[in-house]
């Protein structure tokens, strides 16, 4: 049987995903997530021992780039898209130094 | 109770590629902020990583130079955490298939040899740089996406000194291999230390702390020594060690707790679906293996065996590849190997140290050094003259031979010329002559000094000595007359 | 219908010939499309952004190109829509999310570059489910697209805007993305052709990632022939997407019309259960048409198809949680928070920037990748993905194609499934297997329900058998008339 979610688990997931939840959202989301967890629980019935996991569905050959610099973008044009930029830097709320 | 220190190091080294790991932005250090960025390294929606072949090649080279086994079937994984220096909110790294495994570095501390095992070496991308100001934190992504190798040692290190020896040797190996410019001050080599202590004889590990913010090999050594002593003190007082991250404060020479280690952060690693898992061809590994230059350890052995240098001298001369290269080039131009080695260690390295310069930055050539040594050997100049003109030779690139001639510094080898000087000196120093004849041999030294002074240092000191002795003995034979 | 009515019903190859001779000007064709858009857009709401002026400049430039006597591309002058999770430089790209409101992508997507290199005219950005997560286009933060066949029905999703724009004759073709059916399901719901190539055939560069190992760029058009012409202009490896595949050995469009006699078609028994009766009936009829063309149609058992939806759910949510982590309000896009505390800024921005469905998937994806669940859920789903691929491999050892309905039901009513995520996910159950296995698949119109809603037939080919899929679909379409019916608008 699928794991029984608790509000605490939901909050932990939300913290890891960096998504704020109101108390009410936490409860509705819990219900919805639980439903989906119950739905995907059917996979437990599938014997998968010794089966290789698939990452890409089709065979792909590795392609690597040559180490040649290329510059196609202007800093100002890129920084103009940032909500906060200053003197060539992107600005964010102060974080504690480490 | 007696305790022992247990240290494992995690070293991040920026690879010497021209471009980033997954985009074509330059990796140059010190450029204007965010000028080396693009939609890929800023994690714009729709962008995809394209692996830099040179980064893989350099990482493989590093792994081979550090005696690692190569994981031929390899892949990249995503390591997730939110932080403003990490644009995708995941770092592309390697989790369960690191490029290199089970390597080692041999070190020597206080004449004792020791092997430090390397558990893994993997390829990953660097984060951006944060600058903290009162008004907020500023982010520069020039460094974001620069290729790094992370090297993790086994907990084989037992002191700050061993850690320093390991880092010194690691740096030398990586520099020799041309993998990185390994400049700790520019952040192209960074080191964190996991430190714990345990009673001597205990086989289990104690609780460890992770030490960060060490900006030189010396500070790594000091930080580990401090931290180990601190932990022993805590235990001696009956306390327990808290697993945490601590910052080294170089100014105060202490470690300071930053935060209790988050209940083991969950990075949610999984294989990056934007990058293809791949097999490294055996032929590529062989090609890289063959391209490896002679590494410091082999070079040291050769210096001892081939040149007859002491193992200490061999170590000093091989620490930096360019210094060893210079030394060998000078030897190839001729001259006594040991004399050249001494000049390298004392005068050349002393000068570089004083001037904070690298050997590539001085105008003097190996041929000049060889010539200088040979000028002493063939008696053209004295060692003293050589030392006098050396600063000019190294700083301006002047040919020592031309300089000697130009300045008229050629030694007086002509006995006839010197005999006149000797005669004058003996006449001007009756007291010393008397002393010598009375058995005070020391007086001879003073007289030699006077000859040198008269000739402005150009007299061949051996010849002056011989001539003085002969003249003095002649006086003694004359019955003191 | 206005004076342009006849023009709107013409097919791309005919238009292309008339444009090449100069009998028809790109400007005139564009005006026909813009007039049609003006007439129906307020009822259908296919587009998030329209830029008629830019399209007009483009049409004029193409006219000039012809006057200069230059070679003209395969899509010369034909108006198109591009799903709004694909970058078109100069037009905003929202991916249907508030998070990217006003975001201007600095570069064209590779697929856009190739469209433009083929001389296409892009009229606007089509509506979609937010970040392509949904099957109804209702999770878009901007508007709800309606099904041109019935104003109270969804157009399907997530490429619902693309599908509706083609079905409503606003454009001749549209570019969409398909991670679990997002091209084929809306094509089925709106009575058009939706082609999802083999994974990697069209590079993803410039396409906002939902689930990287599933996301496939493809084509929506009114006929198979037109879909093939567009596909030919777009497919092939690009060095900016190292998961992309080389070009097909030869262009597909000229190979259409190849005989399908003797083609072996497998129909998974699991795909014929739990269907709406009209879907079941139309599917049976369609299979009989294929038999009539000389194909051999046989039922097969594919034991792991029953697990496709669950595996798809876990894997796409895991990848989505990771891919969408970059939307944090720092480097681009919107910031929905004044917090001076960074953790709060992230959490508030992502709480308000993402809609409900996206949050649901990101949260679950985070859960599936978390310590203690990863091996048991995510890796297990990756293994089930392998088993589903093996089911297909086994079938393709004996058969050329796998066939069945595209969706178990015709288009459902607006808002019916919005609050029932499990029911919504299950509408992908026939389409997601092709994404799990990376296979080329097409949905082609196969008739209508009793209520007059379109129903699609799905054909799935083996890896890289894109041409075969389109050849069979073309043969089917040539033998049927369903694609000629058009919605009364
Ligand atoms: Mg690391
Ligand atoms: Zn870049």
UniProtKB/TrEMBL annotation, chain A:
Keywords: ATP-binding, Ligase, Nucleotide-binding, Protein biosynthesis, Transferase. Its EC number is 6.3.5.-. Pfam families: GatC (PF02686). GO terms for biological process: glutaminyl-tRNAGln biosynthesis via transamidation; regulation of translational fidelity; translation. It is an enzyme of class 6 (ligase). One of its GO terms (molecular function) is transferase activity. Gene3D superfamilies: Glu-tRNAGln amidotransferase C subunit, N-terminal domain. It catalyses: L-aspartyl-tRNA(Asn) + L-glutamine + ATP + H2O = L-asparaginyl-tRNA(Asn) + L-glutamate + ADP + phosphate + 2 H(+); L-glutamyl-tRNA(Gln) + L-glutamine + ATP + H2O = L-glutaminyl-tRNA(Gln) + L-glutamate + ADP + phosphate + H(+). Allows the formation of correctly charged Asn-tRNA(Asn) or Gln-tRNA(Gln) through the transamidation of misacylated Asp-tRNA(Asn) or Glu-tRNA(Gln) in organisms which lack either or both of asparaginyl-tRNA or glutaminyl-tRNA synthetases. The reaction takes place in the presence of glutamine and ATP through an activated phospho-Asp-tRNA(Asn) or phospho-Glu-tRNA(Gln). Heterotrimer of A, B and C subunits. HAMAP family: GatC (MF_00122). Belongs to the GatC family. This is Aspartyl/glutamyl-tRNA(Asn/Gln) amidotransferase subunit C. The gene is gatC.
TrEMBL record, chain B:
Residues 325-472 form the Asn/Gln amidotransferase domain. This is Aspartyl/glutamyl-tRNA(Asn/Gln) amidotransferase subunit B. Keywords: ATP-binding, Ligase, Nucleotide-binding, Protein biosynthesis, Transferase. Belongs to the GatB/GatE family. GatB subfamily. InterPro entries: Asn/Gln-tRNA_amidoTrfase_suB/E, Asn/Gln-tRNA_Trfase_suB/E_cat, Asn/Gln_amidotransferase, Asn/Gln_tRNA_amidoTrase-B-like, GatB, GatB_C_1, GatB_Yqey_C_2, Gln-tRNA_amidoTrfase_suB_CS. Allows the formation of correctly charged Asn-tRNA(Asn) or Gln-tRNA(Gln) through the transamidation of misacylated Asp-tRNA(Asn) or Glu-tRNA(Gln) in organisms which lack either or both of asparaginyl-tRNA or glutaminyl-tRNA synthetases. The reaction takes place in the presence of glutamine and ATP through an activated phospho-Asp-tRNA(Asn) or phospho-Glu-tRNA(Gln). One of its GO terms (molecular function) is transferase activity. It comes from Hydrogenibacillus schlegelii. One of its GO terms (biological process) is translation. Its EC number is 6.3.5.-.
From TrEMBL, chain C:
It catalyses: L-glutamyl-tRNA(Gln) + L-glutamine + ATP + H2O = L-glutaminyl-tRNA(Gln) + L-glutamate + ADP + phosphate + H(+). The keyword Ligase applies. GO terms for biological process: translation. GO terms for cellular component: glutamyl-tRNA(Gln) amidotransferase complex. Its EC number is 6.3.5.7. One of its GO terms (molecular function) is ATP binding. PROSITE patterns: AMIDASES (PS00571). InterPro entries: Amidase, Amidase_CS, Amidase_dom, AS_sf, GatA. Residues 29-470 form the Amidase domain. Coiled coil: none annotated. The active site is at residues 83, 158, 182. Keywords: ATP-binding, Ligase, Nucleotide-binding, Protein biosynthesis, Transferase. Allows the formation of correctly charged Gln-tRNA(Gln) through the transamidation of misacylated Glu-tRNA(Gln) in organisms which lack glutaminyl-tRNA synthetase. The reaction takes place in the presence of glutamine and ATP through an activated gamma-phospho-Glu-tRNA(Gln). Heterotrimer of A, B and C subunits. Belongs to the amidase family. GatA subfamily. HAMAP family: GatA. This is Glutamyl-tRNA(Gln) amidotransferase subunit A.
């Amino acid at each position: 049987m699928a794991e029984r979610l608790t509000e605490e688990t939901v909050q932990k997931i939300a913290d890891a995903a960096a998504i704020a939840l109101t108390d009410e959202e936490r409860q509705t989301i819990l219900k919805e997530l639980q439903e989906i967890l119950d739905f995907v629980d059917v996979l437990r019935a599938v014997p998968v021992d010794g089966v290789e996991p698939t990452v890409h569905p089709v065979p792909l050959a590795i392609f690597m780039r040559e180490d040649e610099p290329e510059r196609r973008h202007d800093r100002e044009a890129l920084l103009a898209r940032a909500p906060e930029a200053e003197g060539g830097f992107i600005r964010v709320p102060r974080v504690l130094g480490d | 109770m007696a305790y022992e220190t247990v240290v494992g190091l995690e070293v991040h080294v920026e690879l010497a590629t021209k471009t980033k790991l997954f985009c074509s932005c330059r990796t140059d250090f010190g450029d204007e902020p965010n000028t080396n960025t693009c939609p890929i390294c800023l994690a714009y929606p729709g962008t995809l990583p394209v692996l830099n072949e040179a980064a893989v090649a350099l990482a493989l080279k590093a792994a081979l130079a550090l005696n690692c086994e190569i994981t031929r079937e390899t892949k990249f994984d995503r390591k997730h955490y939110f932080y403003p220096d990490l644009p995708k909110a995941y770092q592309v790294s390697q989790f369960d298939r690191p490029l290199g495994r089970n390597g080692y570095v041999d070190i020597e501390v206080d004449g004792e040899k020791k092997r430090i095992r390397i558990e893994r070496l993997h390829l990953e991308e660097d984060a951006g740089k944060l600058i903290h100001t009162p008004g907020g934190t500023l982010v520069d992504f020039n460094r974001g996406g620069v290729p790094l190798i992370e090297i993790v040692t086994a907990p084989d290190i037992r002191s700050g000194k061993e850690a320093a020896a390991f880092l010194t040797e690691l740096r030398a190996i990586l520099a020799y291999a041309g993998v990185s410019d390994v400049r700790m001050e520019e952040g192209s080599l960074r080191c964190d230390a996991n430190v714990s202590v345990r009673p001597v004889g205990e086989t289990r590990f104690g609780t460890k702390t992770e030490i960060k913010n060490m900006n030189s090999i010396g500070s790594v050594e000091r930080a580990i020594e401090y931290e180990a002593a601190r932990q022993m003190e805590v235990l001696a007082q009956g306390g327990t060690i808290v697993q945490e991250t601590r910052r080294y404060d170089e100014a105060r020479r202490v470690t300071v707790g930053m935060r209790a280690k988050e209940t083991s952060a969950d990075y949610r690693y999984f294989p990056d679906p934007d990058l293809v898992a791949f097999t490294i061809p055996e032929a590529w590994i062989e090609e890289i293996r063959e391209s490896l230059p002679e590494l410091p350890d082999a070079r040291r052995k050769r210096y001892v065996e081939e040149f007859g240098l002491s193992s200490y001298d061999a170590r000093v001369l091989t620490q930096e590849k360019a210094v060893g290269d210079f030394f060998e080039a000078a030897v190839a131009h001729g001259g006594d190997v040991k004399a050249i080695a001494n000049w390298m260690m004392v005068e050349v390295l002393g000068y570089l140290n004083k001037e904070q310069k690298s050997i590539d930055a001085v105008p003097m050539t190996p041929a000049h050094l060889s010539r200088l040594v040979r000028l002493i050997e063939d008696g053209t100049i004295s060692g003293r003259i050589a030392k006098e003109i050396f600063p000019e030779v190294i700083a301006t690139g002047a040919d020592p031979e031309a300089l000697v001639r130009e300045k008229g510094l050629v030694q007086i080898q002509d006995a006839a010329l010197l005999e006149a000087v000797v005669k004058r000196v003996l006449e001007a120093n009756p007291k010393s002559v008397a002393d010598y004849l009375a058995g005070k041999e020391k007086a001879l030294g003073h007289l030699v000094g006077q000859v040198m002074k008269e000739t402005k240092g150009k007299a061949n000191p051996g010849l002056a000595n011989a001539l003085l002795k002969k003249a003095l003995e002649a006086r003694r034979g004359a019955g003191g007359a | 219908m206005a004076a342009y009515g006849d023009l709107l019903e013409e097919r791309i190859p005919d238009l292309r010939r008339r444009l090449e001779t100069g009998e028809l000007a790109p400007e005139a064709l564009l005006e026909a499309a813009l007039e049609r858009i003006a007439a129906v857009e307020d009822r259908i709401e296919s587009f998030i952004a329209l830029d008629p002026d830019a399209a007009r400049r483009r049409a004029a430039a193409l006219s000039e190109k012809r006057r200069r006597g230059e070679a003209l591309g395969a899509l010369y002058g034909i108006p198109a829509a591009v799903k709004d999770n694909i970058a078109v430089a100069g037009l905003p790209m929202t991916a249907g999310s508030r998070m990217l409101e006003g975001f201007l992508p600095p570069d064209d997507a590779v697929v856009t570059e190739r469209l433009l290199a083929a001389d296409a005219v892009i009229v606007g950005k089509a509506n979609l489910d937010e970040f392509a997560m949904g099957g109804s286009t209702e999770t878009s933060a901007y508007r709800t697209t309606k099904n041109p066949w019935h104003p109270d029905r969804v157009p399907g999703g997530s490429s619902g805007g693309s599908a509706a724009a083609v079905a409503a004759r606003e454009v001749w073709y549209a570019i969409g993305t398909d991670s679990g059916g997002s091209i084929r399901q809306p094509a089925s719901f709106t009575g058009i052709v939706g082609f999802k190539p083999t994974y990697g055939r069209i590079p993803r560069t410039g396409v906002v990632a939902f689930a990287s190992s599933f996301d496939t760029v493809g084509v929506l058009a009114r006929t198979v022939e037109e879909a093939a012409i567009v596909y030919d202009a777009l497919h092939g490896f690009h060095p900016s997407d190292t998961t992309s595949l080389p070009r097909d050995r030869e262009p597909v469009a000229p190979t259409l019309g190849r005989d399908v006699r003797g083609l072996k078609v497998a129909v998974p028994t699991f795909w014929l259960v739990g269907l709406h009766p009209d879907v079941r009936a139309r599917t049976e009829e369609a299979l009989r048409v294929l038999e009539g063309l000389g194909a051999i149609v046989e039922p097969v058992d594919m034991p792991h198809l029953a697990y496709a939806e669950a595996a798809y759910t876990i894997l796409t949510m895991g990848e989505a949680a990771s891919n969408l982590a970059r939307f944090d309000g720092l480097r681009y896009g919107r910031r929905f928070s004044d917090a001076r505390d960074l953790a709060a800024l992230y959490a508030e921005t992502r709480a308000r920037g993402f809609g409900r469905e996206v949050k649901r998937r990101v949260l679950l994806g985070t859960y599936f990748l978390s310590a203690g669940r990863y091996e048991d859920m995510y890796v297990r789903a990756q293994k089930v993905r392998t088993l589903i691929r093996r089911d297909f491999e086994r079938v393709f050892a004996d058969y050329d194609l796998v066939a069945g309905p595209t969706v178990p039901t015709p288009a459902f009513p607006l808002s019916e499934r919005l609050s029932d995520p499990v029911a919504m996910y299950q509408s992908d159950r026939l389409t997601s297997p092709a994404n799990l296995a990376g296979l080329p698949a097409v949905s082609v119109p196969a008739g209508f329900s009793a209520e007059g809603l379109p129903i699609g037939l799905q054909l799935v080919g083996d890896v890289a058998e894109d041409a075969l899929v389109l050849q069979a679909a073309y043969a089917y379409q040539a033998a049927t008339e369903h694609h000629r019916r058009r919605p009364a608008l």
